[in-house]
Design goal:
- The protein is α+β, with helices and mostly antiparallel strands and 334 residues long.
- Helix content is 31%, strand content 28%.
- The chain has one domain: Ribonuclease Z/Hydroxyacylglutathione hydrolase-like (Metallo-beta-lactamase, Chain A).
- It has eleven helices and 18 strands.
- The chain has a seven-stranded mixed beta sheet. Strands 11-12-13-14-16-17-18 form a seven-stranded mixed beta sheet. Strands 3-15 form a two-stranded antiparallel sheet.
- The protein binds zinc ion.
- Zinc ion (ZN) binds next to helix 5.
């Protein structure tokens, strides 16, 4: 049999022609579909003893830090942000936390609902569904405080989003946000929080679903309140313990971790009592570093689960190690 001679030049030309046709096809295909920008579903689970904790993202909000942070300078903020490879317009996470005790499903904070729309927030219920829960499954809501990004998800479009839930909140929060004189005294940039807070609470009050508490108490087995006044008058943490493991869920102790951990004296415009909030933050960070428990933080980058350790005169954040087999709390590794 006679083999046909192969012309090398023709063959290379053929390959090149084919390649160029392929790259034209790929470019055409690429231009035909838009870039995908949606983030992964925002939930993350960890085991805490016999409980399962699910961090839920309500999204992020871009905040002008130099305009919001006080008791500092724009240069100091910029330098601290640069140390964390970030700029003055940081993306701040809005996190909520679901505690499944096996007998109760408890949600700590509810995200912003529609109150930051269309700019940010409002993703909590999408992520709740993605995590395998329905709003009707939630037995209890524990509010750290009544600011929009923590209670806004209670009511959307005038409708109660968590109709089966009892709402637990410090009595001092209700007293403050329903106090007309406090609203009159509040600086202009805080006034909008009063009607927003009332709009989130009133439908549940009418339905007889609000359960105010005072002091440091056990709300239910394994979940205790920790009073942390300053950011708001009834600002509260929730301490969760199961089978010897402990998680403390913060409200607004840290708004911007790259700045307020190295320098806890930096306050924020939203503080009702900035001096008290600063002292509260310093005590909270010291306690977390000493006691080594796991922390869940509403505004530290999602999922906001991790530990605090001392660094120099301040602190730093150590994010929880990622795990796909229900990450054990750090205490399990001791
Ligand atoms: Zn907040």
């Amino acid at each position: 049999m006679r083999l046909r001679p192969i012309c090398l030049c023709t063959s290379i030309f053929g390959v090149l022609t084919a390649c160029s046709a392929l790259s034209e096809d790929t470019a055409a295909a690429r231009s035909a579909r838009p870039l995908l920008r949606a983030q992964a579903p925002g939930f993350y689970r960890m085991a805490l003893g016999d409980f399962v904790i699910t961090a839920l993202s309500d999204g992020t909000v871009s905040l002008p830090l130099d305009k919001l942070l006080n008791n500092t300078t724009p240069e100091h903020i910029e330098a601290l942000m640069a140390r964390s490879f970030q700029t003055l317009s940081a993306e701040i996470s809005i996190n909520a936390y679901l505690i499944d005790t096996g007998s109760r499903v408890v949600l700590v904070d509810t995200g912003a609902g529609e109150l930051f729309a269309p700019r940010a927030g409002g993703e909590l219920f999408t992520n709740l569904h993605a995590a395998g829960y329905r709003p009707e499954d939630i037995d209890d809501v524990l509010l750290t405080h009544v600011h929009a990004d923590h209670s806004g998800g209670l009511v959307v479009g005038g409708k109660m989003m968590l109709p089966n839930s009892l709402i637990h909140v410090h009595q001092a929060e209700l007293d403050y946000w329903f106090d007309v004189q406090a609203e009159d005294r509040a600086p202009a940039h805080q006034k909008h929080s009063f009607p927003q807070g009332r709009a989130s609470m009133v439908p549940y009050q009418i339905a007889g679903k609000v359960r105010p508490f005072k002091g440091a108490i056990e709300l239910m087995p394994g979940i205790r309140t920790v009073e942390a006044p300053g950011h708001t008058p009834g600002h509260t943490f929730y301490s969760v313990e199961s089978a010897g493991h402990k998680l403390v869920i913060w409200g607004d102790t840290v708004h911007c971790a790259p700045v307020q951990l190295p320098d806890p004296s930096v306050t924020i415009q939203f503080d009702s009592d900035a001096k008290r909030a600063r002292a509260q933050r310093e005590a909270t960070l010291s306690d977390a570093a000493e006691q080594r428990y796991t922390v869940a933080a509403a505004h530290i980058s999602f999922p906001g689960l991790g530990h605090v350790r001392r660094r120099g005169n301040g602190y730093e954040w150590v994010p929880q190690a990622y795990g796909t087999t229900l990450a054990l709390s750090q205490a399990d590794c001791r």
